[in-house]
Sequence to fold (215 residues):
Amino acid sequence: MKRVIVIGLGIFGVNIVRELYEGGFEVYAIDKKKESVQKVKDFSTKAIVADGTDNEVMELIGIQEDDTVVISFGEDLAASTLITLHMKQLKVKNIIVKAPNEEHKLILEKVGATDVIIPEKEIAGKVAKSIISPNVLDYLPLSDGYMILEMAPPDSFFGKTIAELQLRNKYHIEVIAIRDVLMDRVHMIPQAGFVFKDGEVMVIVGKEADIRKIK
Fold:
């Protein structure tokens, strides 16, 4: 099972921990404030009171190269930078850092962050796109736990038909459209004989728990 280490338990960090844990990941949640750690103890694999900038403590936790580390410190650039540098020294391959602005993002990328997220900017962009292009599907929750989701098919789908993959029986989902990104065209309600290939995006309907099983 893939392990994710979340360092910094503000609103963003807490929600990342919850979503990943409910998604079946092994999640370690770390913050130096005891009250913050208490908030996530019921939906994390391990909730640890520790200073993320303390290299010795982080090494005792046993962070490994294949772990994903999420660093969430808001405006505290010094703390984010120190931890990012240390994770780079530990050869962690996937270091995701929250930043408040583009200037902080550039600095964090320079010191080794593999992905820097500016949540406020991304949310603003998503809202703006939904206003500009209201018919573009990204994620749409429906009733009774169902949702419509646009996603790229996994590599295991390529070269196989919808019938061969038994998507309805195996995953309990329906493919309602296929968007060919390269050709810029959409196949609505594809037939059972439709063959998946690279460069396509699926629009599917199903329960969130079932969709998460697609690999």
